[in-house]
Amino acid sequence: QVQLVESGGGVVQTGDSLRLSCAVSKHTFRTNAMGWFRQPPGKEREFVAALTRSSGGTIYADSVKGRFTISEDSAKSTVYLQMNGLKPEDTGVYFCASNQASATPYVDWYAFWGQGTQVTVSS
């Protein structure tokens, strides 16, 4: 079983930066694809960024391209989401997710999820 624990959320102002972390209990073939998703207040969960660990390939939602970066530290079994230039519309609960094979932007494709960390961006 894969366990994912997010941290690093908080309350920031427009233009600020935050780095979210996703600690992975143990990397297996079930964690080759690592994704970040968010759920804005009153809305459905949406794709933010994802990483295919075996290839290093990354994909991003158009709304965060150029501002957010997904990366990993394999020695620490941790995946990060560096968020720069934060906007109020980035507010939401951010979730880490994993599955086998290659990363996709589809919520329903991911099998394992963390509990989420709240990010609030004030104007």
Any chance you could write out the topology, listing elements then pairs?
Elements: E1 4-7, E2 10-13, E3 18-24, E4 33-39, E5 46-52, E6 57-60, E7 68-73, E8 78-83, E9 92-99, E10 112-113, E11 117-122
Parallel strand pairs: 2-11
Antiparallel strand pairs: 1-3, 3-8, 4-5, 4-9, 5-6, 7-8, 9-10, 9-11
Write up this protein.
The chain is built from no helices and eleven strands. 0% of the residues lie in helices and 50% in strands. It is mostly beta strands. The strands form two sheets. Strands 2, 4, 5, 6, 9, 10 and 11 form a seven-stranded mixed β-sheet that branches. The protein has a four-stranded antiparallel β-sheet with strand order 1-3-8-7, with no helix packed on it. It has strands at residues 4-7, 10-13, 18-24, 33-39, 46-52, 57-60, 68-73, 78-83, 92-99, 112-113, 117-122. The N and C termini lie far apart (40 Å).
Distance between the termini: 40 Å
Q: State the helix count.
A: 0
Low-confidence stretches: none
Report the sheet-strand fraction: over 45%
Mean model confidence by pLDDT? 96
Rg over CA atoms, rounded to whole Å, is 13 Å
Helical residues, percent:
under 10%
Largest sheet: 7 strands, mixed
Helix-strand makeup class: mainly beta
* DSSP, total strands: 11
Assembly state (oligomeric): single chain
The topology string of helices and strands comes to: EEEEEEEEEEE
Overall 3D geometry?
globular
Summarize the model shown.
This protein has 123 residues and is mostly beta strands.
